[in-house]
Amino acid sequence: MYLRKRLLEIKKRIGPITKELGLKHTLAQMNSDNYHLFFERKDRNGVLWRSATCFTFDCERMTGLKEITWDHIQIGLVETRVVAIGDNGWVAYHGDWPGRGFYNVDDRRLGSVELAFDAVEDALRKYPLVPQNYGLPKIMDSRDMIDLWPYLEPACRKRGFDHVEVGRDVEGNEFYRFEDQDSVFEIVKGQQRVHVVIDDEIRATLPSRHCPEELVEEITYQIDHHLSPQEYEF
Q1: Which has the closest alpha carbon to 5: 57, 62, 61, 64?
Q2: What is the pTM (predicted TM-score) of this model?
Q3: Which terminus of the chain is more solvent-facing, meaning fewer CB atoms within 10 Å of its CB: N or C?
C-alpha cells in the first residue's frame, strides 16, 4: 500500500514506452532500506540488461508516512555509453547503476513531476541498457582496467604498439597484451593488484587502488627498462 499509488502512476505514464522497448518494471531493495524501480529485460541467453535510469523510493522508516509522496522519490538519470577498449572488439559500459545522478522528482532542474517523467522517457529511448551479468564475452568488467585504458592507450601508441589485445583468462582475470618483435607485455588485473608481466615473468605488482596515471607511469617504466625478473611491491 505504501508504494502502490506511485507505482501505478509510473506504470500508467511510463508503461507504453517500456512495453515498446520490451522492458519489465522490477521493484527491488538493494543494500539499503530504500526501494528501487528498475527497467530491464533478459535476452535469449539469460543475460539481464538494465537501464541506468530508475526510480528510488525512501522507505517507510525514513518518511514516517503510510503512503509515499513524490517529495520522497528520486530518479537516477545517467548518460550510459559504450566505448571500445583495445583493438580486438572488446567494449566497456560507462554510467552503470548505482553510479548515477540523483534528482528529486520535483527538482527545479527537472521542473515538475510531469517533466521528470519526460526526462525518464527520453533517457529510456536514448541511452543503452547495461548488462548486469559478469564474465560476458568481449565486455570488460574490471573498473580499474577500464579506467586504465585512456592512459594506457596513448602510452602504447607512443611506443609503437599498434595492436593492444584485451582478454580474460580462465580464472576471470582481465588483461591487456601487446608485443614487439622480441617480447610480449601483459597488464593483468589480479585480486586487488595489477601485475606487469613481460615474457611470462612478473616484473611488478601494484595495488589497483593507484590512480591510472601512476599505474601507467610504473607500467611504462617496467616496459622501457625491461627490468630483471622480480616482483616489486608498492
Answers
A1: 57
A2: 0.84
A3: N
